[in-house]
Amino acid sequence: MSAPTESSLDVEGAAAPPRRNGELVFGEPWEGRAFGIALALSDQGHVPWEAFRQQLIVAVAAADGIPDAQTRPGYYENWLVALQRLLIERGIVSGAEIERRARQFATGERDIVNPGDA
After folding, report:
1. CA 95, CA 105: separation in Å to the nearest integer?
2. Domain range holding 39?
3. 76-98 per-position pLDDT tens digit
4. How much helix, strand and coil, in percent to the nearest 5, is found in the chain?
5. How far apart are CA 77 and CA 105, in angstroms?
6. Are 73 and 81 in contact (CB under 8 A)?
7. Per DSSP, what are the bridge partners of residue 20?
8. Which residues in the chain come in under a pLDDT of 70?
9. CATH number of the domain that 53 lies in?
């Protein structure tokens, strides 16, 4: 299994990450972290990049079907959906664990600044 390269990031396809002047664009810190997590999991051999890319294409296509742009998920929200689906599908984490961790971050129980505190 090979780690994703610049060419395998699907620069022009449905799964292409947002770019500005050729550089990746992250609107919020969590977007960059989600991007890095997916690449690291692939690089470490836990998740095949092509399997993730296919999940992302499905998530983006589903989001594109939502007519109201105000409620349509953004690109990195689709990225998270794809990553979560793949992690659950491969038995790396359960849906309940994802929900528990999301609640911890949302309530401040898990501190993003000091991750060792949670």
Report:
1. 16
2. 7-111
3. 999 999 999 999 999 999 999 99
4. 55, 5, 40
5. 16
6. yes
7. 23
8. 1-14, 111-118
9. 1.10.472
